[in-house]
Write a structure and sequence with these properties.
alpha+beta; 503 residues
Length: 503
């Protein structure tokens, strides 16, 4: 490696690792703020919180690394231009592309490492973080309850969902405005309990956690054995001052916080697993749609499927059809029913309302089924789209590091400013543009409004022509935005009009 290449690479690596460390710390504090209520004050200990942060750091790489490459390249080449080091290079016959040669090799290698990281480390970190939070919620029941939403409260024999307006006190043991939906063995919520206050009471020596509710109401739908009694919808309702629910946690005392469970989301899967699941989910969705379509057609009685014909019987069927054709024509000639009104007129008057109500009920039932199934299929296809999106994002992340380098390096040479002032502002503006385009494209792709592949690659594809344009302008020693040719064009336009008017 020549001295110049070594010097440029050293300066770039210094800016790269400095920016990466600063940005990762900022993003950690910004991200960990989302989970601080579930971790702080739960008696988890520094080790568990440290593990959670350790698993959380790799999930930030897809945001931090592109910004780091962009900022480091702007800082490096901006400092070179500000200190006239680029002028010295050009005076020695060294072009911008020649000065970027060592960094281009480094950034390409960085792209390969980024893809490996996105394919192996990030999915494993997502899985570890998810399971750690889930297992913490089992060991510390208060951590499983989130304010303002219904939370699955694990550890009960029947299971239940709990919603509270506020948690407070030591280890969040006191609850305000508690709503509980208790589940049956069939996971049906037929019991609702509401209370103004609640308290979680536990002891290290006991395997029982007691949930004490105060000043509330109890409502339960009863399921009688007789069908006639079920039509009456019986229920039980009562008011209580104090109501206690005992939760057996004997099976959770030996809970391993590092236990891995099933991989549930697309972020927890690598490329090979995503390709496999995309194929299976896609086939399953098609089967669901075909089965539902067939069911609706059968219920409507419309569009009957043509049965396959036996070629040996075709001749005999033609002869029979020719014989029956005359009979059918006679029947059709005698058939006066051509519209729905004609059908109703042919029926007795007492049957009119019955036929109309039956038809209306059938159509309403089919429409309700279609609407319900549509929501289910939309969720299935959204899940399918998220897998395709996640697969292509792993490739797009690696290429984005390379593309953003070709945006930042010539941009730094053009603005000719080093330090953390203007370069930081420019880098953040470009990154926010890149990031928000990616967010909107991903959301549209998940809903099926645009192609999933385009949703993953759109921000990178937008930055690609910008990088090419900036590199050409920096090579030609042009400014960031040139208005000279625009002004000249306007002047020439007015000159032509003035000449035309004189003629």
């Amino acid at each position: 490696m020549k001295i110049l290449d070594q010097y440029i690479l050293t300066r770039f690596l210094y800016n790269f690792f400095s920016a990466f460390f600063i940005l990762i710390v900022i993003f950690i504090f910004q991200g960990i703020w989302l989970f601080i209520d579930d971790l702080a004050g739960k008696g988890l200990g520094i080790v568990i919180i440290g593990k959670f942060i350790f698993y959380f750091i790799p999930t930030l790489v897809d945001k931090v690394l592109p910004l780091t490459v962009l900022l480091a390249s702007i800082l490096t080449f901006g400092t070179f231009a500000e200190n006239y080091e680029f002028a010295a290079m050009k005076a020695s016959g060294i072009s911008l592309q020649r000065g970027m040669r060592s960094l281009i090799v480094y950034v390409i290698l960085l792209g390969g490492v980024t893809f490996f990281f996105a394919n192996t480390v990030i999915p494993k970190s997502e899985q570890k973080m998810f399971n750690l939070r889930r297992n913490i919620a089992k060991v510390k029941p208060a951590a499983a309850i989130t304010e303002g939403i219904f939370s699955d409260f694990e550890g009960t024999g029947e299971g239940m969902n709990i919603k509270v307006d506020k948690k407070y006190g030591e280890q969040d043991r006191f609850l305000d405005n508690v709503i509980i939906h208790k589940k049956t063995k069939q996971s049906v919520n037929n019991t609702v309990i509401k209370a103004k206050e609640g308290e979680l009471i536990s002891s290290e020596e006991s395997n029982i956690i007691q949930l004490v509710l105060k000043d509330g109401h109890y409502y339960e739908e009863l399921k009688p054995k007789g069908s006639k009694d079920r039509k009456k919808h019986p229920f039980a309702k009562s008011k209580f001052e104090t109501y206690s629910i005992n939760i057996d946690i004997s099976e959770l005392n030996n809970q391993d916080l590092e236990e891995d469970r099933n991989i549930t989301t697309d972020k927890m899967k690598n490329v090979s697993r995503l390709i496999k699941d995309i194929d299976s989910i896609g086939k399953n969705n098609v089967e669901k749609v075909e089965a539902f379509s067939k069911n609706i057609v059968n219920r409507m009685g419309a569009f009957p499927e043509a049965k396959p014909k036996d070629s040996t019987l075709i001749k005999a069927q033609r002869i029979t059809a020719a014989v029956n054709d005359t009979i059918k024509k006679e029947k059709i000639a005698n058939d006066t029913i051509k519209t729905v009104d004609d059908l109703l007129t042919s029926l007795p008057e007492w049957q009119h309302l019955q036929v109309v109500n039956n038809a209306k009920t059938t159509v309403t039932s089919i429409l309700t089924t279609v609407v319900t199934k549509k929501e289910e299929l939309q969720k299935r296809f959204k899940f399918y789209n998220s897998h395709i999106l996640s697969l292509h994002k792993k490739y797009a992340l690696a290429f984005s590091c390379i593309i953003l380098f070709f945006v930042g390096a010539p941009l730094g040479a053009i603005i000719r400013k080093g330090g953390l002032g203007l370069p930081m502002v420019v880098a953040i503006m470009l990154f926010l543009t890149y990031y928000f385009i990616g967010v909107f494209a991903s959301n549209y792709a998940k809903e099926g409004n645009i192609s999933n592949i385009l949703g993953a690659w759109l921000p990178t594809l937008i930055m690609l022509p910008l990088g090419i344009s900036l590199t050409r302008r920096a090579t030609a020693d042009k400014g960031l935005i040139g208005f000279g040719h625009i002004v000249d064009g306007i002047k020439n336009l007015f000159k032509k009009k003035e000449k035309a008017s004189k003629e």
